Amino acid sequence: MGGVAQKMTDTVKNAPVLGSSGVHAVAVLTDPSNGQVYGHVDFVEANDGTVIVSGEIKNIPDKQKRGFHIHEFGDTTNGCTSAGNYHRFLSMEFACLYVGAHYNPDNNEHAGPQDQLRHVGDLGNIVGGSGNVAKFNFKDSLIKLTGSRSIIGRSVVVHEKEDDLGRGNTADSKKTGNAGGRMACGVIGFKKS
Ligand SMILES: [Cu+2]
Ligand SMILES: [Zn+2]
């Protein structure tokens, strides 16, 4: 056996282990306003129902943390942001019109990924590493790629500051984690397996 058939066998052998749903998703993150922070995030549903989140984001300074969330909407009509000064002039409610606030189907307060009660979209922080690249690979048990709570069609946002995980003792801490503006975002779509 050789040629195409052999290649296909090799492809199957080397394929990642599919989860219960077999659904893979990806978000390609950019910042339409300056393009400095960019990268991609992959999502794979594992057999135990958790979702493996992996990827890399460029231009996150070494050892610095940046808020990392699933936001409610996948509408990047007006960028992420913060695009220019657009959102800085508007109240929080208006800023939520496009990619929206953190995905929060249970109406909980903002918290960290390890907390029992949190926004579903609260994935905490990513951390810059060597070459100012944030690389990550972790599991989350609240986000889903199938069913009524699927995150497909929503967006991933990287913020300008560290997410305080709801522990900042300010009103905003329990809403946004005081993570500041939005540096990059991308819509979560189906990925070819
Ligand atoms: Cu966010
Ligand atoms: Zn949140």
Automatic annotation (TrEMBL):
Cofactor: Zn(2+); Cu cation
UniProt entry tagged with the keyword DNA-binding: no
Domain of life per record: Eukaryota
Enzyme class: oxidoreductase
InterPro entries linked to this entry: SOD-like_Cu/Zn_dom_sf, SOD_Cu/Zn_/chaperone, SOD_Cu/Zn_BS, SOD_Cu_Zn_dom
Entry keywords, A to Z: Copper, Metal-binding, Oxidoreductase, Zinc
Reactions catalysed, as given in the entry: 2 superoxide + 2 H(+) = H2O2 + O2
Free-text cofactor note: Binds 1 zinc ion per subunit.
Entry EC number(s): 1.15.1.1
A Pfam family reported for this protein in Swiss-Prot or TrEMBL: Sod_Cu
Domain Superoxide dismutase copper/zinc binding: start-end pairs: 37-188
One MF annotation (Gene Ontology) recorded for this entry: superoxide dismutase activity
Family: Belongs to the Cu-Zn superoxide dismutase family.
Purpose of the protein: Destroys radicals which are normally produced within the cells and which are toxic to biological systems.
Protein name: Superoxide dismutase [Cu-Zn]
Organism the protein comes from: Adineta ricciae (Rotifer)
